[in-house]
Amino acid sequence: MKLLEINNLHTYFDTKKGLIKAVNGVSLSIEEGRTLGVVGESGSGKSQTAMSILKLFENNQKIYEGEIKFEGKVISELSEKEMQKIRGNDISVIFQEPMTSLNPVFTVNRQISEVLMLHQGLNKKEAEARSIEMLKQVKIANPETVNKSYPFQLSGGMRQRVMIAMALACKPKLLIADEPTTALDVTIQAQILKLMNELKAETGTAIMFITHDLGVINQMADDVAVMYCGQVVETAPVDNIFMDSEYIHPYTEGLLTSIPRLNTKRGEKLDVIPGSVPHPLALPQGCKFAPRCKYATEKCRNEEPELKEIGPNHQIRCFFPVKRGGNK
Question: Which residues form the ABC transporter domain (predicted)?
Answer without folding.
Answer: 4-254
